[in-house]
Design brief:
mainly alpha, three-stranded mixed beta sheet, 358 residues, three-stranded antiparallel beta sheet, globular
Length: 358
């Protein structure tokens, strides 16, 4: 047998062994690939779809709005060559997909899932609800806390052309503005192996860019209403942070695990009772199951402290015509930091110096 054939055979044997040992992950990745291939081959350019005379007026309006928002957001971010949100894909279902977040029963650190060569993520995405629930149930049987949430959008980080999905058509102009501002931010800047920081920065800047777009089309936000919503959101965030702190004290104690689990159950039950009593105040109509994984998910999409805001304001003063580009450029300097160092920066005043990564 020639050397080339031996190498090829060795590769095939290794691939087969990987598939046998990691069958569950192979099936999972195949389900992702199945969805993405459908999108790649069956998406339709929005400009071409708009030429059709049979699309409903609300859909036409949403598609035209998407193109306007995309252009403005990409200009604000200084992103060139992006093809995101130039196309449309009909899912044929209500929900785009689902994320599951997994955390140990006595720890608030999420399980991390690694995907070479892309990196690691603190959650798993699914495009089949039954399949997502099957994975979630398996982790629950193993004693983990699990949170399953429907996803409104996602970014392939520039690996593929991200389309507008049919499930997003009825989001309205404001919803689309925030969606595109968030997902395109991921394409502009993403921190490998640091999902939490990447989501916090996108969640922050989507508000700035989304509001700027709305103001540009004569739909400025009501500052009084915004201030009231912000106040209530801060109150809810403070309640959640207090719950996290209390749970961490329980988990770090020297008590037996059975006692920790009992204390955890009582603490969460008390929190749920208080939350339901203030549901109307917080504008809540549904209540997620509160556990470690849910707290990780909620924390992930909630910008903490003043760091992002202070950095943005500094950029706005220094470069008023390119504040967003300045903001992204400054944040990129944190790529050489560890996740722990970036977490400390989030809790700081937002200044970026050579000391941040030491």
């Amino acid at each position: 047998m020639s050397r080339k054939k031996k190498i090829a055979l060795g590769f095939l044997v290794a691939l087969l062994a990987f598939g046998i040992v990691n069958r569950r992950w192979v099936v999972y990745l195949a389900h992702l690939a199945k969805h993405q291939l459908r999108v790649v081959f069956f998406k339709e350019q929005i400009s071409e779809r708009l030429k059709r005379s049979d699309i409903p007026a609300p859909q036409r309006q949403a598609l035209e709005t998407t193109l306007r928002i995309r252009q403005q957001v990409e200009t604000l971010y200084g992103l060139r060559g992006s093809k995101s949100y130039r196309s449309f894909y009909d899912l044929g279902r209500k929900e785009l997909g689902f994320n599951i977040t997994v955390a140990p029963a006595l720890n608030l650190k999420p399980e991390s899932f690694r995907f070479w060569p892309i990196g690691s993520f603190d959650y798993l995405g699914f495009f089949d609800e039954a399949y997502a629930n099957a994975w979630a149930d398996e982790y629950r049987r193993r004693g983990f806390d699990v949170h399953v949430a429907a996803i409104g959008g996602y970014s392939t980080l520039g690996w593929f052309e991200d389309p507008l999905y049919s499930s997003q058509l009825d989001w309205g102009e404001a919803g689309l503005a925030y969606l595109l501002a968030h997902e395109i931010a991921h394409e502009k800047l993403y921190f490998e192996n640091d999902t939490a920081f990447s989501e916090m920065l996108a969640s922050f800047i989507e508000i700035k860019a989304g509001r700027e777009y709305l103001a540009s089309v004569g739909r400025p936000v009501n500052e009084r209403q915004v201030a009231e919503k912000r106040k209530r959101r801060k109150e809810l965030t403070a309640e959640l942070l207090m719950l996290r702190d209390s749970l961490e004290k329980i988990y770090e104690s020297q008590a037996p695990d059975t006692e920790k689990l009992a204390d955890k159950k009582k603490l969460i039950a008390d929190f749920n009772s208080r939350l339901r009593n203030r549901a109307a105040y917080f504008g809540m109509t549904t209540f997620p199951e509160i556990n470690n994984a849910a707290l990780v998910q909620l924390h992930r999409y909630t910008p903490q402290g003043k760091a992002f805001e202070n950095l943005y304001e500094n950029c706005r003063k220094a470069e008023p015509k390119s504040a967003y580009q300045c903001w992204f450029r400054e944040l990129e300097k944190l790529k050489r930091c560890t996740a722990a160092q970036r977490k400390r920066w989030v809790e700081s005043d937002g200044e970026i110096t050579g000391e941040n990564c030491r």
